[in-house]
Amino acid sequence: PLFEKKSGIQARVVAVGTSQAIRLAPGYPAPHLALADTLLVYRNYQAAALEFRTATRLDAGNPHAYVGKGEALLGLNRLEEAGTAFREALRLDPKLASAHHGLGVVLSAQERPDEAVQELRAATGLAPNQVASHRALARVLHGQGKRDEAIREIREILRIAPHDDWAKQALEQLEARGAH
Fold this sequence. Notes:
The structure is a single chain. By secondary structure, the chain is mainly α. Helices cover about 75% and strands about 0% of the residues. The protein is built from 10 helices and no strands. The protein has helices at about 10-25, 30-40, 45-60, 65-75, 80-90, 95-110, 115-125, 130-145, 145-160, 165-180. The longest helix has 17 residues, at about 10-25. The radius of gyration is 18 Å and the shape is elongated.
């Protein structure tokens, strides 16, 4: 998720506030989305998926709600349903980088690397400074044996985030393997 983890007290305040808002206006999608986002941050994927399902039922035109739903379903390893949610988000907003990223992760988990690369390249093209998409793309490319392309993605991560430990280690390992 794109939300920062809140302290335990902050999370309880959000949860209580949104729960009260849901009781007052159960047909309004915003409090369901706020609660779902908080649940997602804390990896309560089951409860988040239920709230996102409610939010998408109440506001079927909100692509961000479908991305959140996809993330929650991905956390539950319900890959087919997650893919459906990300595809719906893309139907609503074809330029939504987070939906391309999520779909790319799903396709990678389904061992469909060519399609995963296509989605992850779309994500990095739309949001070039999102490290997570470059990292996922580097992993898929490496898995395909495309070492040089994977190295390019890792170098891009280091351009964006020079202190990224994962990227430093991955680059060192890939370059060492190429030297032999």
